[in-house]
Structure formats: structure tokens, C-alpha cells
TrEMBL record, chain A:
Native source organism of the sequence: Buteo japonicus
Reaction catalyzed: an acyl-CoA + acetyl-CoA = a 3-oxoacyl-CoA + CoA; octanoyl-CoA + acetyl-CoA = 3-oxodecanoyl-CoA + CoA; dodecanoyl-CoA + acetyl-CoA = 3-oxotetradecanoyl-CoA + CoA; decanoyl-CoA + acetyl-CoA = 3-oxododecanoyl-CoA + CoA
Molecular function GO terms recorded: acetyl-CoA C-acyltransferase activity; acetyl-CoA C-myristoyltransferase activity
Protein family according to the UniProt entry: Belongs to the thiolase-like superfamily. Thiolase family.
Record key words, sorted: Acetylation, Acyltransferase, Endoplasmic reticulum, Fatty acid metabolism, Lipid metabolism, Membrane, Mitochondrion, Mitochondrion inner membrane, Mitochondrion outer membrane, Transferase, Transit peptide
Pathway entry: Lipid metabolism; fatty acid beta-oxidation
GO BP of this protein: fatty acid beta-oxidation
Self-association and partners: Heterotetramer of 2 alpha/HADHA and 2 beta/HADHB subunits; forms the mitochondrial trifunctional enzyme. Also purified as higher order heterooligomers including a 4 alpha/HADHA and 4 beta/HADHB heterooligomer which physiological significance remains unclear. The mitochondrial trifunctional enzyme interacts with MTLN. Interacts with RSAD2/viperin.
Location in the cell: Endoplasmic reticulum; Mitochondrion inner membrane; Mitochondrion outer membrane
Protein name as catalogued: Trifunctional enzyme subunit beta, mitochondrial
Listed PANTHER family: ACETYL-COA C-ACYLTRANSFERASE, TRIFUNCTIONAL ENZYME SUBUNIT BETA, MITOCHONDRIAL
UniProtKB/TrEMBL annotation, chain B:
PROSITE patterns linked to this entry: 3HCDH (PS00067), ENOYL_COA_HYDRATASE (PS00166)
GO molecular function: enoyl-CoA hydratase activity; long-chain (3S)-3-hydroxyacyl-CoA dehydrogenase (NAD+) activity; NAD+ binding; transferase activity
Localization in the cell: Mitochondrion inner membrane
3-hydroxyacyl-CoA dehydrogenase NAD binding domain span: 370-547
NCBIfam families in the record: fa_ox_alpha_mit
Subunit structure: Heterotetramer of 2 alpha/HADHA and 2 beta/HADHB subunits; forms the mitochondrial trifunctional enzyme. Also purified as higher order heterooligomers including a 4 alpha/HADHA and 4 beta/HADHB heterooligomer which physiological significance remains unclear. The mitochondrial trifunctional enzyme interacts with MTLN.
Protein name: Trifunctional enzyme subunit alpha, mitochondrial
Important for hydroxyacyl-coenzyme A dehydrogenase activity, annotated site positions: H504
Similarity comment: family membership: Belongs to the enoyl-CoA hydratase/isomerase family. In the central section; belongs to the 3-hydroxyacyl-CoA dehydrogenase family.
InterPro entries assigned: 3-OHacyl-CoA_DH_CS, 3-OHacyl-CoA_DH_NAD-bd, 3HC_DH_C, 6-PGluconate_DH-like_C_sf, ClpP/crotonase-like_dom_sf, Enoyl-CoA_hyd/isom_CS, Enoyl-CoA_hydra/iso, Fa_ox_alpha_mit
Catalytic activity annotation: (3S)-hydroxyhexadecanoyl-CoA + NAD(+) = 3-oxohexadecanoyl-CoA + NADH + H(+); (3S)-hydroxytetradecanoyl-CoA + NAD(+) = 3-oxotetradecanoyl-CoA + NADH + H(+); (3S)-3-hydroxydodecanoyl-CoA = (2E)-dodecenoyl-CoA + H2O; a (3S)-3-hydroxyacyl-CoA = a (2E)-enoyl-CoA + H2O
Amino acid sequence: MGSYFKLTGILVNIPSLLAVQPKSKKTLAKSGVKNIVVVEGVRIPFLQSGYCLHGANSVCFHLLCRGLLNRTSVPRDVVDYIVYGTVIQEVKTSNVAREAALGAGFSDKTPAHTVTMACISSNQAMTTGVGMIAAGQCDVVVAGGVELMSDVPIRHSRKMRKTMLTLNRAKTLGQKLSLISKIRPDYFAPELPAVAEFSTSETMGHSADRLAAAFGISRLEQDEYALRSHTLAKKAQDGGLLLDVVPFKVPGKDTVTKDNGIRPSSMEQMGKLKPAFVKPYGTVTAANSSFLTDGASAVLLMSEEKALAMGYKPKAYLRDFVYVSQDPKDQLLLGPTYATPKVLEKAGLTMADIDVFEFHEAFAGQILANLKAMDSDWFAQNCMGRKSKVGAPPLEKFNNWGGSLSLGHPFAATGCRLVITAAHRLKKEGGQYGLVAACAAGGQVMMLHGLALFPLERGSNYISAPVSTMKSSPVTPGVGAPLKSRGTGCL
Amino acid sequence: MLAVISPRPLLFRVSVKLFYVSSFSFLKSTEHKLITRFCLFPARSHVSCDIKGDVAVVRFNTPNSKVNTLSRQLSSEFTDVMNEIWANEAVKSAVLISSKPGSFIAGADIDMIEACKTSQEVTQLSQEGQKMLEKIEQSPKPVVAAISGSCLGGGLEVAIACHYRIATKDKKTILGTPEVLLGLLPGAGATQRLPKMVGLPAAFDMMLTGRNIRADRAKKMGLVDQLVDPLGPGMKAPEARTIEYLEEVAIGFARGLANRTVSAKRSKGLIQRITDYAMALPFVRRQVYKTVENKVQKQTKGLYPAPLKIIEVTRQLLNAKLSASLFPFFQSFGQLAVTKEAKALIGLYHGQVLCKKNKFGTPQREVKTLAVLGAGLMGAGIAQVSVDKGLKTILKDTAQQGLDRGQQQVFKGLNSKVKKKSLTSFERDSILSNLTGQLDYKGFEKADMVIEAVFEDINIKHKVLKEVEAVIPAHCIFASNTSALPISQIAAVSKRPEKVIGMHYFSPVDRMQLLEIITTDKTSQDTAASAVAVGLKQGKVVIVVKDGPGFYTTRCLGPMLAEVVRVLQEGIDPKKIDAISTAFGFPVGAATLIDEVGVDVATHVAEDLGKAFGERFGGGSIELFKLMVEKGFLGRKAGKGFYVYQEGVKNRSLNSGMDEILARFKVPAKPEVCTDEDIQMRLVTRFVNEAAMCLQEGILSNPVEGDIGAVFGLGFPPCLGGPFRYADSYGAKQLVDKLRKYEAVYGSQFTPCQLLLDYANSPSKKFHQ
């Protein structure tokens, strides 16, 4: 756990950071609403699909939960509730949260449920937890998500399923034989889950390619952005910044300790790849898209009083969130653009207030399209019904430790990774507010398109003292005071 | 200099750019440079050219028009631009594209063809076009067609002369050769290039049906090489960005073709290769020609010369080795263009365009919520064509059973589109979410228009009108879908007759193109504007007529059907009547038509009209119909009428139960007017005479709407172009002579109306100038 003094040092050492912070750093605490904090967040290393994970979702899960419990040493019976997200459902463990909870040794009295909302399933898990704590239902919630793309359920064809089910009801041998005789070779063709929209039958990659084209984003720009993601991720990994990773013993294999999808390449090599979706002239390739990934992540959420009472130093305060949805055809991946201004207004912040941006990178083209859309008055006026643009986040604050392009994107596990990375970056970089955004699609659920967004506030134990002591501006006491008074009990 | 150029900024841009390029590449040859510069100066309004690196982008943009057409002006500018491109050494390839997102080239300019006085002139046009396209085909610099929007007729011929085709994959992008629908043949090489490109059977299918082919289908057929998906909103409007993107992609391919990194050769599938192999065998080809020809003969009864010519020309061209032998082909095009069938079909085309416009202007308030009363065949049909165009639709009936049937009909109609893949199941469901089925008047307070399609009984209509007026808002329009009840009679009980109008749909509503709108003296202009707007939104061809018994369409049909009954009574059997009426060009035989309409409906209408018009609507005995109704021979819906209808039986047989009825009403035939031709003319002259009377009485406001209504609503032979076009081509005098001849035998039913007499007396007078 980081300490208060270390942080002060960083603030002193980076005067430029201070120079951009004379604005009022108020707290976003709302009167009458409980403060909800992230105590800890962990994830197993994100592994390229097919690499080594062949266990069931629940196995992967409970191992991770153990990691979370070990790291926080929170007594198992303190956890009031468990919410987990997953996208590709295993029919046998449809309530995977409950199976994982039991496997991880949580009390069998702790209820658990599973949520699904495509790529933001763990965001949904976290906000469900936030809602439960805010409503006073519980104080301690474990929220997370798991995705095992190495092991997806593959079904029999509809015709075959129908025959098999009718076969169950057939009474005589004659009836059975006559049913079996109707089976044709095409009955055996399996049905694979597709990463395609139910409503438009368009694959996500195809949609991303069209989106990039709509915003006139070139192949070169996309490759450059992807390279940035890999380079930054590599730096973060080598620098030991990815603190949320817990080692994971793959059943029957060695223990994995780090993400294995980070591969900084060269522009030349990336340039050689052929388009993966819009053939032969598209711009989205394997190198500038996020890859199929196995992984799991979890956070421990508590009400502030509970955390403080138990002696934890909160890593972050979860302040606000919005979900939005748009046209699943042309704006499938533009969620962050729509949600960012909304949540900022809700929280009373501007783009300039945010110190840390963690956005889910589904495709390089998608990220760049969102940046352009946020920076376009035409888009704001014609598509969002706003008077003017919200402005794009500055790249130097954006996904500085890599993103889904390089770390990987286990659908339902990405949300927690974003939140915990943002918290760690706030601490490391000395910022106060973080913003997390992810776009999702409605693959298997009928939800069209959602997005979760949190303005995070860093844990007060890190921020209140340095800010109030280092600045002499008249605003500061007013800001610092409530934070202090709230935080003193623990500090 | 600037002052001279400034009115034409576009031209200025183009010429500067071209000059810029040429000043680099032609430094050595001053002479060439001068020529290039000289060519740039003529004012170009239809075609422009941008040079992007080594690729020339040629843009079509017919000024002041929604679509691009191959007019003389556009063709000549296009030729000039292409010549410049060929002369410019810095340009290695070219892209053809339109500046209009909805139209690549919608076809040759029909006015231009019509303006030709002789077939020679048309032949020459075709020859010029063909020459230009041959040059493109043989161009050493690859030419890529970037197609977005309609690419039809001459437009398609331009596209298939190019080396590569890229099309936008949206619903607006359609490819086809609709010439046959205008009585013409594809005049600039499609007969020659299409079979090579898509194979003979598919080429015949395209050229003989004139059907529109969507981009994705075109890709599968090999008609286009690449597809570009339409883009969503980005930094500018989606349509604008999509066409820009199409251009970028096309430029990439043009460059690739020029430096040979892209091959224009398609890899053919196994089936295609087998077909090609088979088609190369002369006896297989002969068999194909024979089959196609027989089919065409059977369907057109030889009344349409164009399809047969298309087959003939295609055959000649495929066999021809030398370009010299192309001449007869150009001649055929010229000959076809001056046939009366082509004139009739082109006239219908113009009429259709006219009837797709709202002559009452934009209504004050757009209809967004529509309520349909009665979930019968008509009601459900109206609901279907409304809800799938985005109108919120309420379908109300009085009984759950009827409502269920109606909702099922709408579902089935939309689902058939899913099966044909023109709609996804998701789109079907989201369309259906806008349809509410109900038994009460809930939600009518939000309706902008109510269309009633309840039973044809004035008392029921009155009851419904009163009920509806009690619940609808003040601006809401009440439209009545009736085929014969006068609207003013229905409006008599209305509190606000200015909001009452007639909207006469034809069955089946989702397939029949016509909508006849009926205004009374009291109907307001705005109400009419709204009704037309709704009709156009529903995809209908709309004619607007004055109120009167039977309006226009039903009224014209009345005398003809009365004559059919008389002919039956004279001992001609229904099969024979069907045969001679279809031989005349009616798509459905006259006896079958009665079965389709329903004998009870026909009786009802005949009685009403008989009361209103008296003797003129006589002829056959209405008692014959009444007896049929009594016996339950109601037509197709009852399974028995003149014919017996059985599920799954293709060759229906005559209803033997009719023998006795026909025998009872038998009247002696008049041998002097009973040849096949006389019977045809007895039916048609009564039709035409009544149509002329509608024009004379002001029910119709012009002959164009009269022709459109008769062809699209009643199946008047399209090759004749409608009753008025027919009167012109057959001759008003000749018509009057025929009428007089029959009048002498049958009396006043054949008395020619005054208007027809006037036209007969002055031969220069024509309904269509």
C-alpha cells in the first residue's frame, strides 16, 4: 500500500503537475449519500485465448477471489454479497458468481448473483454493488467479472436440438428410429457463439472499421495508437506498476505471473498485416484490435464507514456513473463520447478537472473515433443535441499504462481492471479525479448498447493533506476541510 | 481573369488542377500543353474532373436534378473529360463517381429519346454511346466505376464497360436494365457485355424483367467487384461521408489496377464455371434461347416487341465476330424506340413520375399516427404498407378473431420480406412494435388520420364516422376506403366535412401500386394534401379524382363487366372470355377478374352504379350475379365462382354449377358483333367511353391520371398506355365508329360521349400531345 509521504514527494518533484492544478479541487461527496470506496482490486494475468486456461469459469474465479481475500486479509464472513459479470455463459454454471463464491470458501450464507452486459459486465457488477451499498442493503460487496474465451459453449444446430428434444419424448423404438432416420449430415454442423450484434448481424470488427472510416481515421493512425498502447503497457509491466495482477496457478501447468499479450512491434511489421474484417481494403487489423483474452478481475467495495472501521485505507471513492445507449448499427462503439459529457455534468466537473483517463480500447480505430467525436462540434450538434463539443481528453493523461489493445480484453473482466488501474494511477501520478469509460455491445443480451463511466475520486487519505498543506490559495481550506474531517478517524 | 472565372468556381478549380499537373508532365511539349489548356475552358455543368495524384476522379452531376441522366450534354462532357484523361500522361487511372449520393446514373435521358423524330436518330444516339463505351472498355488506363445510388439502364451500361465496379451496400444502390419496361432494349452494350459478365441466364433475367438488383446480390452475381458499407455519422453527414469514402476506396483500387497489384479478374465459382462451359455449347445455347423465347411469348402474348428483340439482339451479338455486324443491333434499338408500345410505356413512366408528386403541396401537419378501422383484407393491407414506412399504426376491429387474422396478415406480409432477405427478422420485429391491434378507441385522441375499411354499407360507415369523430382530435382526417359509395354521402353525417376524404386502395394493398383519392366539394386543400402525402409515403402512385358514384376506376370497370356478363349470356364460356381479354393485353382475364373481385362485391357495385347511371350501365343481367351469390359462388374467396379454386391445384376447372345458371340467362348472340375482335372491342370501347365521360364531367382532372388509374388499378393493357393513350393511338374516330356499330345492335350503352365525338371530329386533337 502506498504511503502518504511517498506521494508528497512525487507532487514536489513534478512541479508541472502542480502548475495544472490550481483549480478548485472540491470533493464530490454528496450529502445524504453514502461514500462508497474501493478497498482493493485484483486480477489474474490476462492471457491470450487458447494459451493455457482450460478450466471452467468458476474455477478461475474462485482462485481469483482467494487472491483478493489473501491480499486484503478480509475475513470471509464479512462479505455481504457477491456480484459477478460474465458474457459468454457456460450453461452449467449459469449463476457463476455463486459457484465461484462457494469454491473460494466464502460463507455459504453469502448470496451471489451473476450479471451480464457485454463488455461492461463487470462495470455492471460494480454499479450493482454500489447501488446495494448506497441503498443500505449491505456494507461489503465483492464485484468482478470473468471470461474464458478458450472454452466457449458450442451448441448443436437448432434442427439437431429439436430432434434430440423430441427424441426424449418418443416412447416406442419405432418412433425413436423414425426420428433418428430424419437426421441429415447438416444437422451436425455446430453453432458457434459469434461476436456479432444480434440486431444487425454485423461483427464488432466490421463495425469498428466502418466507424474508423466514418471519422476518416487512417490505418497508419490506428497502428500508431496500437503501438502506443503496447509500448506503454510494456513500460508499466516492466516498471512493476501493474499492481493489481495476482499470480495464478494454472491447473496442471505453471504459475503465470504477468499478462502475455503485450508485444510492442514495429510500424513496418504491423503495416504488413491484412485487414481482418473489411476485406481487402479495410483498416482494422489483428494488430490494432483487442484480442480474444481469458481473464478475471474483482474489486472489494465497501461503505466508507465500514472500511475505515475495519482499518482499511480506501484506494478510491466511486462517485458517479451513467449508462447510455445508442443506435447499435452506426454508433455501436461511440458510447464514451455520449457518456463523458453527461457524467461530467452530473458530477459538476469539466474535462480539465480529470487527471486520469482509463478508457476501454476495443479497437484503436474506435478510441480514435471517440476522441475525434468528442472534439467535433458537428458531431455534438448533429448527433448529440449539444451546443458544443466536450473536447477530447489529452493523450498524456490517457491510458498511460496500456489498455485493452495490449493487455487484452476478457469481456467481463475489463471493467474492474479499468477502475483499479485508474485508482493506482491517481496515486502514482498524484491526481484527484479519474474517469473510466467502456463501450459495449449487445451480443447475447437484448440490451442494445451501454456504457459505464465513473468519475473516480482518489482515496482521501492520499490527497487531503498534501493539497491543503501545499497550497495557500483561499479555496483550499474549504475543500480540504470536509475531506479531513471525514478522513481523520482513519488517518 | 478572376472576374471571368469567378462565376464558375468549380470549373476554375478543375482547370487549375489539371493545368498544374500538366505543367509538370508536359514541359517538353508546349504544343500538347496548349491543347490541354484549351480543352479545359469550355464550360462544363454536368461532368467535372479532379486529379488526385495519378488518379482522375470524374464526377457526374446533372444540375437541378435529383438524379443524373445520360443526356446529350452529359455524354458530350463525359467524352471530353475522358479524352483529356487519355491525353494526360500524369494520369494512370480513373474513377467514375456521382456527386449525388442517391444516384450514380439513373439511365439515359428519356426526353432525349422521345425528342428523336425518326428511328435513325435514335440509332445514331445508340451508336455514339456504344462507341464511347467501347473506348472505355479498351482504355489502357483502368477505369473504376464507384456506384452509389441508382445505376440503371445507360448508367449500368457505363458501369459494366469499366474495368472494375465498386458499389455502396445500401438500399438505394440498385443496378438494373429497366429498358424493357419502357419498350426499349439496352442500347449501349448491355446485351453484349452482361451475358459475358453474369452468364446468359442471369443476363436474360435482368434484361427481360428489368428487375432492380441490390448491391449485395450484384456482388454475388459478379456484377460488381467490391462492396463498400455505408457509414454512420462522423464529422459530417453520413451520406456525404459515405460517398467520399467510396471515392477513397475506388481511388485505391484504381491505383492498384494501374500498377497491377489488383487484378480485375474474378475467380468464378464451380457452378459458374459449369454454366459457362455449358453455355459455350451451341446446342445448349439454342435451347436456352428457345426456352426464354417461349416463356416470353407466353407471358406477353406477342403484344410487346421489346423482349423478343432483346433475345434476338443478344443472340446475334454473341454469335457475331466482327464489329461491322453490330449495325442491325443499333437499328433494332432505333426501331423499338418509335413503336407505339414504347410510346405507351414511356407515357406511363412519365405519368407515374407525375403521380408521385403531391400537387397540393406540403400539408400543414405531417401524419405520424394513423388509425385503421377494420382488420379485414383491405384494413390489414393498409396497416402493413403504413407501419413498414414508419407510421405509428393502430389497427382496430370489432372482434378479436378478425383482429387476430388482420395482425397475422401484416406479420405474414412482412415475414415474406424476411424470407426474401429484403428485411431482417430484427427489422421486422421493430416495425411490428409500431403496430397496435385493439378493439376499442384507445389512443385515437393522438391519431392524425383515420382510414376506415369497414363493410361497404352506408349505415355502417355512418355509424363508424360518428363514433370516430367523438374521439379524434380536431386536426384528424377521416378517410374512407370505399370502392363505390360516394364520399359526400358518407360525409353527410360529419361535423367537419372538410376533413373527410376518400382513399380507395386496391387489393392486395401491399402489391397494387395505385391509390385513388377522392375529394368532395367540401374537402379542404390541406386534407387532400395530407391524404396524398400519406399515400406517397405508403409508396403508392396517387391519382386524385372528384367524388361521384364509382369515382373513376370503379366507374370505368362497371360497364365493361356488364358487357362481360352479356357476352357470357350470349353463350361464350368464361375460359374463352379470359383468353380473348388476356390476348388483348389485360393481365387478368375478365371472368377471372370477377372471381377475384368477388361476385357479391360486383353485384353490390353494379346495383349502386346501375341506380346512379341507369341504362348506360346495363347490358348483362344483374340477376345472373344475384343467383351466383345465392348459390354461394362468390368467387375465389369462396372457392367457387366461374371457376373452382382448390388449394394446390394449378389448372383450375370451370365450375359446372354455373352451367345451369348460364343456361337460364342465355340470350341469343348477335352474329354480326360476335367475332373475337368484336368481343374485345365491345369490352374495351365501353371502358374507354366511360373514362372519357369521367374526363368530360370533371371527375378526372386530366388524361394522365386517367391512364395511370386504369393501368395500375384495373390492369388496362400497359402496352396500350391507358384508355386515353389508346384513344389517341387507335384514333378517336375509329373508336366512335366502333361504338356506333355496337350502338346499332345494342342501343344506348354504346352511345359515344360528347368528348369522344369532339376528338373524333377534329383529327388533330389528341389527349396526349
